[in-house]
Write a structure and sequence with these properties.
The structure is a single chain. By secondary structure, this protein is an alpha/beta fold. It folds into two domains: 180 residues, Bordetella uptake gene, domain 1 (D-Maltodextrin-Binding Protein, domain 2, 3-Layer(aba) Sandwich), CATH 3.40.190; 95 residues, D-Maltodextrin-Binding Protein, domain 2 (3-Layer(aba) Sandwich), CATH 3.40.190.10. Helix content is 44%, strand content 18%. It has twelve helices and eleven strands. Strands 2-1-3-10-4-11 form a six-stranded mixed β-sheet, with helices on both faces. It has a five-stranded mixed β-sheet with strand order 7-6-8-5-9, with helices on both faces. The radius of gyration is 20 Å and the shape is globular. The termini are far apart.
Length: 310
């Protein structure tokens, strides 16, 4: 029996069994783009067949439930931005699934997409400074879209740091929020560059500032919020998880495959198209980063939003 178990372990992953990558965000989002790049790279690097399955909604809970309810056999993976392990537990502490308890981190895969402040055709402001000045004169007149905990918190943080009052308009996905901004349904959206790039190219959305310490090398024309007089910074990372019941040997084997993909040149080139870069941290390092970010964001949330705000 022991030799049979060892043989079975050595055949994992079975290349005839597809790996399902559950993305709890909509198609067209940055996390979706990373998932598809990871699936392609896994096939190229290790011969593993991987498919992306988008299950957006309910602050990632729908996607998390899909992974948790699937067999814990190493063939269903959760791919999330740091809003899921870091911000969701802070904003909504009584969720039915807890990523720290119910999932095991394999590796981070991408990082460093600072939030971009975008305006749409509902206004004619040419800078975030003009928008903030108008919002100060008209509290509650202007709206911002959100579709994730991070995009919602990004809007609330803007209110707090700029001293303005906006109205939140929630959408199910970032793609839907982007369309809402481009069509004039809302005035402002704060999200990653990759999610809104097509609308920039069409001219329907105007990027006016980024929430980073310095300008992005790939977008040097966009000023930072600090340059606009607002001490505002938002960035995130993306990581993959297995259900916590997954055998440790399978988690270790998949961790090695994922990390091999992350350091490959092809994966880095794919991420660059979405203003992302590879980020390679293993299991315990992901846990440490999560705790560090939770401590940082906890202070921000307590200072900028009411307890348990949604």
């Amino acid at each position: 029996m022991a030799w049979q178990q060892a043989a079975a372990a050595q055949t994992y992953p079975d290349k005839s069994t597809p790996l399902k990558i559950i993305v709890p965000f909509g198609a067209g989002s940055a996390v979706d783009a990373v998932g598809r790049a990871l699936a392609r790279t896994m096939s190229e690097q290790s011969g593993v067949s991987a498919l992306v399955d988008n299950k957006p909604g309910a602050d990632s809970i729908i996607g998390m439930q899909a992974v948790h309810q699937a067999p814990a056999d190493g063939y269903t993976m959760l791919l999330v931005s740091s809003s899921t392990p870091v911000l969701n537990p802070l904003m909504v502490p009584n969720q039915p699934l807890n990523i720290e308890r119910d999932f095991v981190p394999l590796s981070t895969v991408a990082k460093n997409y600072p939030a971009v402040v975008n305006l749409g055709p509902s206004t004619t402001f040419k800078s975030v400074g003009e928008f903030i000045a108008a919002a100060k004169e008209n509290p509650g007149k202007y709206t911002y879209a959100s579709a994730t905990t991070l995009s919602q918190l990004a809007g609330q943080l803007l209110e707090s740091t700029a001293g303005i009052k906006l109205v939140n308009v929630p959408y199910k996905t970032i793609s839907a929020a982007t369309i809402g901004l481009a069509s004039g349904e809302v005035d402002l959206l704060i999200t990653d560059a990759g999610s809104v790039r097509p609308q920039w190219e069409s001219g329907r959305i105007r990027p006016v500032a980024i929430g980073a310490p310095t300008r992005m090398g790939s977008l040097p024309q966009i000023p930072t919020m600090i340059e606009e007089g607002v001490p505002y910074q938002v960035s995130a990372w993306i990581a993959v998880y297995f259900d916590a019941r997954t055998p440790a040997d399978k988690a270790a084997a998949m961790r090695a495959i994922v990390r091999k993909c992350v350091v490959s040149s092809g994966f880095g080139e794919a991420l660059a198209r979405f203003y992302l870069e590879p980020f390679d941290l293993g299991g315990d390092e992901v846990k440490a980063l999560t705790k560090k970010d939770m401590a940082m964001w906890g202070k921000v949330i307590r200072a900028s939003v009411p307890p348990h705000a949604k």
